[in-house]
């Protein structure tokens, strides 16, 4: 009971420790880089082809070389917009900041404004930037001539995570209040492809300061591939018409810088070999994910904690049942299973649950549980050793002989003490064998000789009484010896024996006692042999003990029924007498050592070891023995023993 309670408390204590580790790591974000590593791994493993209807018009090195230094005249951009309008582009996303008028040519702004108006599907960006640290956030919006004709406007702000990587966007942002949609959301709204999962209007939240950037509804972008994954066509090639006919028809066209020298690049989880992703391609990935309702939502904190706790304590269910090596291997396997689930969740369910808390708790599950097991084993060993020392002291072993010399290593000292106690137990076991040998030979022999000498004389009036006492002492010594033999029986040395033949020999040995009382046996035995592994002498004596009891407690001239059957590879022996039966409240005491049932029907010469011997012998053979009262018949003893099977057939 104490051991089970201790094991339960160890499980609870370990579960509490692992749960606290998981929650603390999830709360303080200490391992956010570890979380991001698993998120990025999932992105590398889930690349998909880029949609054919999203095209990037790249302001690349070739365009800069052909058109000239940046910034270009607004007339050049107007020509591009007109070209795309003629090609019936579905939406034109100009990822270029036009926050100030062109000073070199006053007509240029009017030309571009007219082109935007004529196109009617141009989406313009709004930039939030902080010129220097701790300065107010500045909002750069297109000049009014462009803004009033734009189909939509959106924020191109991309936040960076703690490790400096761009993974997310905010659906709504703004100074003082988040009223401005993200650029990708504005593009899809202009294209009339915005999914129902994206709200058209932001939540009603605001800040006290009009210079504070308010960001709402963070979503992670499910990248389709590394930089360069989307279709690109050079800006200069569009102006010169070097593209297939109807190439831009009904497509979402994103115009933006891809030349590294222009600085519009972002480090992303899929930026291999330190190759940053152009901002315009980042927005293209966001558009593709948003349109397919595949933007990834961050799980709420309470859900992260709950799942982390559940995943962290699951090892407690299987660790107590496994060996140390299997426990270690199972923890490693379980770790990779949980890691795989965490990596796959964004791909299949569009939800991101940071796994660091659960994974670290899982890694610590084995050492924490091992520590608790070792602590419990140490306490149990100390208590058991203390009890063992007390028992050995009662048997006459000196206390000084039970304690090993002090050792700096406490565990090694305990092991040494156990070794000493084991040696003393081995010595006592040898003494027990010597005692049994003494009872078997040195004590039984003179008892038997005394009985023989007493039987030679007939003048002593106390002769019957002395003979009875000596017979009782001899029977007790013999029963004690047989019980000890049964207790020390080695199952590894059992041999094949036929239970049918054994039962017949037990009946033959009981025949004389049955005949003297005119008791007959009604036997029901199978014709075929029933083979099992066992000790013939012990098992035969156990069966004979029950038969002798059946004869002893049956009235004169009664019938004792002996039935031996086989069922489901089990031998079932039932011996039923016609005696007075056994009191129900005393049946449980039948097979206890030195237990004798007091009562008018109890034989006075009993030693209390006969049925104990039967119980020990049957259990040594892997079976069971029970007693019950048969209605109107007396007592019935049932012995069940397992049979041997060889190649699917019984002997």
Label this structure with key terms.
alpha/beta; 4 domains; 7-stranded mixed sheet; disordered C terminus
SS elements, strand count: 21
Main sheet, how many strands, which sense, barrel?
7 strands, mixed
Give the uncertain stretches in residue-range form.
598-604, 646-651
Radius of gyration: 46 Å
Tally of structural domains: 4
In DSSP terms (H or I, runs of 4 or more residues), the helix count works out at 18
Overall shape: it is: rod-shaped
Structural class: alpha/beta
Measured as a percent range, the helix fraction is 40-55%
How confident is the prediction overall: mean pLDDT?
82
Q: Tell me the span between the first and last alpha carbons.
A: 43 Å
Strand content: 15-25%
Please characterize this protein's 3D structure.
The chain folds into four domains: 18-43 and 299-367; 50-296, no CATH class; 410-485, no CATH class; 490-642, 2-Layer Sandwich (Heat Shock Protein 90). It has 651 residues and is an alpha/beta fold. The radius of gyration is 46 Å and the shape is rod-shaped. It has 18 helices and 21 strands. Strands 1, 2, 3, 4, 5, 9 and 10 form a seven-stranded mixed β-sheet that branches. Helices cover 47% and strands 16% of the residues.
